[in-house]
Every structure is written in structure tokens, then in C-alpha cells.
Recover the amino acids of this structure.
């Protein structure tokens, strides 16, 4: 069940995926309270002018008790990435994850993210530079990649071997190619091949949303852990549900009143992290994920989305929960 990332021992095998605009400190905290064993912060650009922007700095926040603290870096220049690793470490990060999976056009057009899977020479230079820095500074570096560039160019095994040889501590593979984006189904054969090819821990990612899927993917791939992304949007309790079900409590589900309380708690932390009015506005997306499909939500949706003050948002939310008998 447990695995290690360099000198850090992770006591379970459920990981929250890094998701830009989502996995900030409050969201990581609530997921970890519900049983996520490890969580990587949001992606940060490595270029100094970008990483020191207000938006990036707000993404780098950690809660005091977060352990170990991990950030993800994006970039295409080895020297800049090593400098960014030092900067992230000075800012409190204990583990640095390198993003070779992001398929966004604005990222791939500047040769970052999953575009690097098509340029193995540059990917190799970056991996060498980050691996050497990691070993020298004793800061574990991990890699997140896709299975390849497209169906004809699946090179995750070669990339993972390069990472292991350079001194990386872990590799996460999202079971899709860059060309697939988020379309189609994740495949786990390539992840299983990667797990056979390297001896550092491998994390399987893609379409994992239930206890059955966790069990099946771990068995099929022989990965050390699984990473959950979209299934945790509006559902941070998924980690608890999966753990309870794996323990044999097969119909475990958090009750609606418990979920309502958790939403209010997450909202309080979110507001404390971002302040007003940013916190109220940015929590709207979480509300839409949380309450999608809940009884009676359609009737209050427009008013909740229009609320621009913290007080209005909270009053509407509490009135909704009370009207449904969950508070
Ligand atoms: C909103 C959103 C933001 C994401 N941002 C990042 C990111 O910053 N870095 C990264 O490596 N992957 C990012 N991803 C990809 C996820 O980490 C994950 O690899 C992908 O969603 C597949 O896992 P899933 O099927 O469990 O969602 C993002 C995904 C989503 C949905």
C-alpha cells in the first residue's frame, strides 16, 4: 500500500491529480482530510516573469500541515527549470513534479507539457538537468507524462527509463496520448509496460473513479498508486468512499448532510485563502461541480451563480440546504 518518493514515505496509494485552477491549498486540504494520501499542487510556469506573477504565487500556497508539499513545474528550458526548482524549494516545496502531460495548445505551442513527448532530445536534456539537480539538492523530482504523442508514437517507456536513469523518484502516466486530449478511454497497457520497465514507483492515471476501478487498475498495471483527477471535482469525499469500499463497506456513501457540511467548510477555507471578492467568484465553479444533479439545485442555480458577495452566497447556500432538510 505504501510507497516512497525519495525520502518521503506515502502511507497509501490514492493520489489527487494536479489540476490547474482546482487543486489549490484549500482543495488539496479537503481531499486529504477525506483520505487522499498525496496531492500535487497546481502547475506553475518555470519562466521567472510568469512564476512570480500574482496568480502563480497564489498557486504556490501550502497549508502548514501539508506533508509532503509538492508543486508541479512546466517549461522547456533546462536551466530555467533548474532555477525554478530552487525557487520552488525556497518557497516551501519538498517535491517537484515536472509536467510532460499538458495537452493545451498554448502550452504545446511553446514546446512545453506533452509537446516534449514529441521532442525526446529536448525532453532528455530537461530530464538530465532536473534529475542532476534533484540528486545534488536531495529534492525528489517526479515526472507526469502521457503514453505518447499519438497512437503511432507511444514512447512513455523510453521517457520513464530516461527519468529513472537521471535520478527521478516517480513517474505518473496518464493513459492517453497527447493527440487524444481527454477523449476516448484511458488505456492501461502502456502504464503496465512502464511499471515493468522501471524500478521507481509508477502511478497510473486516467478515468479512475471507483473502488472497483482502483482495484482493477492496480492489479492490471502493477502500479504503486493511482491518481484521481476529474472524479474528484465536486467530490473530494471520493477518497473516503473508495477506501471504505475497499475495506468491504461496499455500499458506503457520505450522507447529503455530511456533504453539505463539507461544502461549507471547503468554502470557508477557500474564502480565507483568496479573500473577497475573488474567493466568492472562484468558488462558483466548485459549487457547480458539487451541486450538479442535486435535488432542487436547478431552481437555485441562477441565484447562486449571480451572488457576488460572500454573505449572499453563503445565505443562499444555507437556505438551499435547509429547504432540502440537510441542515
Ligand atoms: C481542470 C483540469 C486541470 C488540469 N490541470 C493539470 C495540470 O495543471 N497539470 C497536469 O499534469 N495535469 C493536469 N490535468 C490532467 C489531470 O492531472 C489528469 O492527468 C487527467 O485529468 C486524467 O485523469 P482523470 O481521468 O482522473 O481526470 C488537468 C485536468 C483537468 C480536468
Amino acid at each position: 500500500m505504501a510507497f516512497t518518493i525519495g525520502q518521503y514515505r506515502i502511507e497509501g496509494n490514492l493520489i489527487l491529480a494536479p489540476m490547474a485552477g482546482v487543486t489549490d491549498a484549500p482543495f488539496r486540504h479537503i481531499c486529504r482530510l477525506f483520505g487522499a494520501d498525496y496531492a500535487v499542487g497546481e502547475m506553475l510556469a518555470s519562466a521567472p516573469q510568469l512564476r512570480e506573477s500574482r496568480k502563480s504565487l497564489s498557486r504556490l500556497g501550502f497549508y502548514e500541515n501539508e506533508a509532503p508539499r509538492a508543486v508541479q513545474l512546466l517549461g522547456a528550458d533546462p536551466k530555467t527549470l533548474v532555477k525554478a526548482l530552487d525557487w520552488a524549494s525556497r518557497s516551501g516545496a519538498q517535491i517537484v513534479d515536472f509536467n510532460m502531460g499538458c495537452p493545451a495548445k498554448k502550452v504545446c505551442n511553446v514546446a512545453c507539457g506533452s509537446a516534449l513527448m514529441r521532442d525526446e532530445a529536448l525532453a532528455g536534456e530537461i530530464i538530465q538537468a532536473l534529475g542532476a539537480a534533484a540528486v545534488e539538492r536531495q529534492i525528489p523530482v517526479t515526472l507526469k507524462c502521457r503514453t505518447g504523442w499519438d497512437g503511432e508514437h507511444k514512447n512513455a517507456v523510453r521517457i520513464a527509463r530516461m527519468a529513472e536513469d537521471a535520478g527521478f523518484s516517480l513517474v505518473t502516466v496518464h493513459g492517453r496520448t497527447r493527440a487524444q486530449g481527454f477523449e476516448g478511454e484511458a488505456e492501461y497497457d502502456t502504464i503496465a509496460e512502464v511499471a515493468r520497465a522501471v524500478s521507481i514507483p509508477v502511478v497510473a492515471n486516467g478515468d479512475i473513479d471507483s473502488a472497483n476501478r482502483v482495484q482493477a487498475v492496480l492489479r492490471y498495471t502493477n502500479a504503486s498508486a493511482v491518481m484521481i483527477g476529474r472524479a474528484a471535482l465536486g467530490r473530494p469525499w471520493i477518497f473516503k468512499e473508495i477506501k471504505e469500499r475497499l475495506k468491504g463497506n461496499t455500499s458506503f456513501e457520505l450522507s447529503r448532510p455530511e456533504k453539505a457540511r463539507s461544502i461549507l467548510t471547503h468554502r470557508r477555507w477557500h474564502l480565507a485563502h483568496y479573500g473577497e471578492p475573488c474567493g466568492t467568484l472562484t468558488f462558483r465553479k466548485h459549487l457547480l461541480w458539487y451541486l450538479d444533479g442535486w435535488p432542487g439545485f436547478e431552481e437555485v442555480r441562477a441565484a447562486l451563480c449571480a451572488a457576488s458577495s460572500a454573505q449572499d452566497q453563503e445565505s443562499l447556500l444555507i437556505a438551499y440546504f435547509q429547504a432540502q432538510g440537510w441542515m
Q: What stands out?
A: Residues 189 and 249 are 30 Å apart (CA to CA).
